[in-house]
């Protein structure tokens, strides 16, 4: 778990010029998601947390950076997990 936090903090520092944090509307009722967009290269970073009982699909084509655990066999975010 310590490695996850260290990785997340290192990545956050690399986003230096990212804009403000904004909450995204999720299609699933138990999913919380936030995004930040880089002013430098236009990349967007999204944090997705699944508090629900069912697995959820991350955004199609998204590059997953640190995750609190492995994705399911179908490539979905399991309950009580974050990416």
What does this structure look like?
- This protein is of the alpha+beta class and 83 residues long.
- The protein has one helix at residues 2-14; strands at 22-24, 31-37, 44-50, 81-82.
- The protein has one domain (2-82): Immunoglobulin-like, CATH 2.60.40.
- The protein is 16% helix and 23% strand.
- It has a 4-stranded antiparallel sheet, with no helix packed on it.
- It is globular.
- The mean pLDDT is 83.
- It comes from Streptomyces alfalfae.
Estimate nothing, just give the exact number of structural domains.
1
CATH architecture: Sandwich
The low-confidence parts are none
Helix-strand topology string: HEEEE
Strand order of the largest sheet: 1-2-3-4
* Net shape: globular
Look at the helices and sheets and give the structural class: alpha+beta
Question: What's the number of helices?
Answer: 1
Overall average residue pLDDT: 83
> What is the number of beta strands?
4
Task: Provide the helix percentage.
Answer: 10-25%
The level 1 CATH classification is Mainly Beta
> Gap between N and C termini, in Å?
13 Å
């Amino acid at each position: 778990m310590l490695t996850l936090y260290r990785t997340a903090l290192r990545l956050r520092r690399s986003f230096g010029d990212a804009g403000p944090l904004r909450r995204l509307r999720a299609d699933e009722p138990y999913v919380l998601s936030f995004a930040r967009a880089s002013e430098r290269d236009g990349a967007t970073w999204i944090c997705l947390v699944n508090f629900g009982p069912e697995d959820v699909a991350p955004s199609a084509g998204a590059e997953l950076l640190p995750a609190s655990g492995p994705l399911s066999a179908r490539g979905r975010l399991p309950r009580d997990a974050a990416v």
